[in-house]
Design brief:
Helix content is about 55%, strand content about 5%. With about 160 residues, the protein is mostly helical. It has two domains: about 45 residues, EF-hand (Recoverin, domain 1, Orthogonal Bundle); about 100 residues, Orthogonal Bundle (Recoverin, domain 1), CATH 1.10.238.10. The strands form two sheets. Strands 1-2 form a two-stranded antiparallel sheet. Helix 4 packs parallel to helix 9. The longest helix is centred in the middle third of the chain and has 14 residues. One of its GO terms (molecular function) is calcium ion binding. InterPro entries: Ca-bind (IPR051581), EF-hand-dom_pair (IPR011992), EF_Hand_1_Ca_BS (IPR018247), EF_hand_dom (IPR002048).
Length: about 160
């Protein structure tokens, strides 16, 4: 669908793609769908926005276990996970770059946080929404709630 190679879909590319795949939708409805998928309202749909809207909704069981993991990380209880929250929870000593002396403990923590941080707002702070969004992507590839919960419990020692 990305005809111009911009790694984003314009409204025109989105509309043309829908038509190419045999979906005949009124122009106003296409605009409405486009606006819904264009989370940041930039006028273009990037790959992350596209994937996010294709994911199936998570069950309340999955959301609850994700929330438990987040609360374990958020030691200050302020709703944001920062480098300070990770001290004493995440062991940086075994990270290869720390072992080689290439990174400090703080750099290891920031790298860890970056994996959960919003791609459009890399600020070294992770909110519950960002954490949920990350695990929503993981959840999409796990069929069973029981397996997902077990995976989260084992990963986060819940």
């Amino acid at each position: 669908m990305d005809d111009d190679g911009s790694r984003c879909l314009s409204l025109e590319e989105f509309n043309k793609g829908l038509e190419t795949y045999g979906l005949s939708i009124e122009k106003e409805k296409v605009k409405e769908i486009f606006s819904f998928v264009d989370k940041d309202q930039s006028g273009a749909i990037d790959f992350d926005e596209f994937l996010e809207k294709l994911r199936p909704p998570m069950s309340s069981v999955r959301k609850q276990v994700i929330k438990q993991a987040f609360q374990k990380l958020d030691r200050t209880g302020d709703g944001v996970v920062t480098v300070q929250d990770l001290q004493g929870v995440y062991n940086s000593k075994h990270h290869p770059k720390f072992k080689k002396g290439e990174w400090t403990e703080e750099q290891v923590f920031l790298s860890f946080l970056e994996s959960f941080d919003s791609p459009n707002d890399k600020d070294g702070k992770v909110t519950l929404d960002e954490f949920m969004d990350y695990y929503s992507g993981v959840s999409a590839s796990v069929d069973s709630d029981d397996y997902f919960v077990t995976m989260m419990q084992n990963s986060w020692k819940l």
